């Protein structure tokens, strides 16, 4: 009974608490001495914690109880932009990425994405200098739940999800209803 109570208890248990839980006439102190000898040299030990008792992992096996936690790192804005450019424009060279972003791509950004195994080196372009290209990996597709890079969301889906503004793209002009009415009236004036 003492063994069961110690195993089930999250906190160390005093001898007085053990005596209250056990039938009248039982000696928990004697049981603790017996259990301590029984577990000696095993994976767990019966140990005294202050004036209470508990079952704990043997000190020489404590390393087995260490939990390794994978620390999740957030990608920088530069890394997210670079990843998006590679995903949507693959195979993409460093010069193409820099042209689209408008700033230089640091080596650390590319290294971080390669370390995550989300991008890899692609084929070299058959252009002067034979620049290396970057493409997304199957691990990238798996992480984002995609079957292929063709399954990436398009402009309509990104706008519907609220990830892009509904403003027209730079360089394109769309006329509002009032402006289109004015233009229609002007063309009618000059059609003689």
Describe the structure.
- The chain is built from nine helices and six strands.
- It is elongated and about 90 Å long.
- The strands form two sheets. It has a three-stranded antiparallel beta sheet with strand order 1-3-2. Strands 4-6-5 form a three-stranded antiparallel beta sheet.
- 42% of the residues lie in helices and 14% in strands.
- It is α+β, with helices and mostly antiparallel strands and 192 residues long.
- The protein has helices at residues 2-8, 15-21, 28-39, 77-89, 94-101, 107-115, 138-143, 155-160, 177-189; strands at residues 13-14, 44-49, 52-57, 92-93, 119-124, 132-136.
- β5 (119-124) and β6 (132-136) form a beta hairpin.
Structural class: alpha+beta
Separation of the first and last Cα atoms? 107 Å
Subunit organisation of the chains = single chain
- Describe the main β-sheet briefly: 3 strands, antiparallel
State which percent range the strand residues make up. 5-15%
- Write out the strand line-up for the largest beta sheet, numbering strands in chain order: 1-3-2
Helix content: 40-55%
Number of helices: 9
The best one-word shape is elongated
Instruction: Write the H/E string, N to C.
Output: HEHHEEHEHHEEHHH
Average of per-residue pLDDT values: 81
Low-pLDDT parts are 177-192
Strand segment count = 6
Computed over alpha carbons, the radius of gyration is: 34 Å
């Amino acid at each position: 009974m003492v063994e069961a109570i110690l195993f089930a208890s999250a906190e160390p248990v005093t001898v007085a608490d053990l005596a209250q839980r056990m039938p009248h006439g039982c000696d928990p102190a004697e049981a603790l001495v017996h259990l301590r000898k029984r577990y000696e040299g095993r994976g767990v030990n019966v140990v005294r914690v202050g004036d209470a008792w508990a079952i704990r992992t043997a000190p020489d096996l404590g390393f087995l109880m260490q939990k390794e936690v994978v620390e999740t790192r957030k990608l920088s804005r530069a890394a997210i932009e670079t990843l998006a450019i590679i995903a949507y424009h693959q195979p993409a060279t460093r010069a193409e990425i820099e042209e689209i972003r408008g700033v230089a791509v640091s080596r650390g950004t590319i290294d971080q994405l390669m370390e995550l195994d989300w991008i890899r080196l692609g084929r070299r372009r058959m252009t002067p200098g034979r620049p290396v290209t970057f493409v997304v990996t199957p691990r990238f597709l798996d992480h984002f739940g995609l079957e292929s890079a063709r399954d990436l969301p398009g402009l309509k889906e990104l706008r519907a999800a609220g990830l892009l503004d509904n403003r027209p793209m730079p360089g394109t002009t769309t006329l509002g209803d009032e402006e289109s009415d004015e233009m229609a009236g002007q063309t009618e004036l000059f059609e003689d």
